[in-house]
Amino acid sequence: MAMTDEQIERYSRHIILKEVGAKGQKKLLNGSVLIIGAGGLGAPAALYLAAAGVGHIGIVDADEVDLSNLQRQVIHTTNDLGKAKVKSAKETMEAINPDVKVSTYRMFVDSSNIRELIREYDFVIDGTDNFPAKFLINDACVLEQKPFSHAGIIRFQGQLMTYVPGQGPCYRCVFKNPPPKDAVPTCKQAGVIGAMAGTIGTLQAMEAIKYLIGKGDLLTGKLLTYDALKMDFRKITLKKDCNCAVCGDHPSIFEPIDYEQEVCEETAGRFATRDEQNG
Question: What is the DSSP string of 13-74?
Fold first, then answer.
């Protein structure tokens, strides 16, 4: 499929990169990414994937835009207050790039729908804000052999890792099970600096882009942590758990699980202590 003159101009800064070129841009145009959560992490990821020309982007979110979202969820504006987040996100993405097909799903993901939902996409971005959803997404992606990016933010800290089938550990290898209720503060309780969502969500978009074009090193087997106050990025090596309940040698999980837990406001991942991260 030949690109139009308008596409060649739009994506010219990609095309001149030897790692991308016209061939890589066509891969993006033919690629698909599902973003689960149109909040702090999903918002910047969606903006940059749309701008990059990823051909089909799905957005899943059941909520409406409220005023407290606007400090970090940059895909929405004050005029979008009360609007479904998926509708607001779609309008912004299509305004940025009419090349992109945006599919919206105003719904909560659960064990009854997630496997079917992720099947048509090449890559999944976990932008959710609660632990049950994170384990649900991980297990579904492992079972469906779908690569995905996990991320988490709270206060001035962020983290992310990428799972690719057959390459490195999954989220459950590292974090085992959801923490007990109220064991970890939510961002509503602890706060989060808005730009942290932009930093980590954009890195998730970069992981998706690298996967689609087949270039660069993904965060497989690595946990990237970021401390914004110290401006400190660190990469921690993660090991696959041969006893993992979903991807181990003798798995015991064959269907996604709906864990019951109070939904967090914006917590997007469990932050391990350094001892936990180093196993």
Answer: HHHTSTTTHHHHHHHHHT-EEEEE--STTHHHHHHHHHHHT-SEEEEE---B--GGGGGT-T
Residue 165 burial by CB count (10 A; 0-12/13-18/19+): exposed, middle or buried? middle
Q: How far apart are CA 216 and CA 76, in angstroms?
A: 31
Residue 84: name the closest of 59, 67, 62, 68 by CA.
62
Q: How far is residue 117's CA from residue 227's CA, in Å, rounded to a whole number?
A: 34
Rounded to an integer, what distance in angstroms lies between the CA atom of residue 60 and that of residue 6?
Answer: 30
pLDDT tens, residue by residue, 129-138: 888 999 999 9
Ramachandran bin of 231, using left for φ above 0, alpha for ψ from -120 to 50, beta for the remaining angles: left
Residues in the chain: 279
Domains of the chain, start order: 12-277 (3.40.50.720)
Question: Does the predicted model carry a pTM greater than 0.85?
Answer: yes
Strands 123-126 and 56-60: unpaired
pLDDT per position as a tens digit, 220-237: 999 999 999 999 999 999
229/226 Cα distance (integer angstroms)? 9
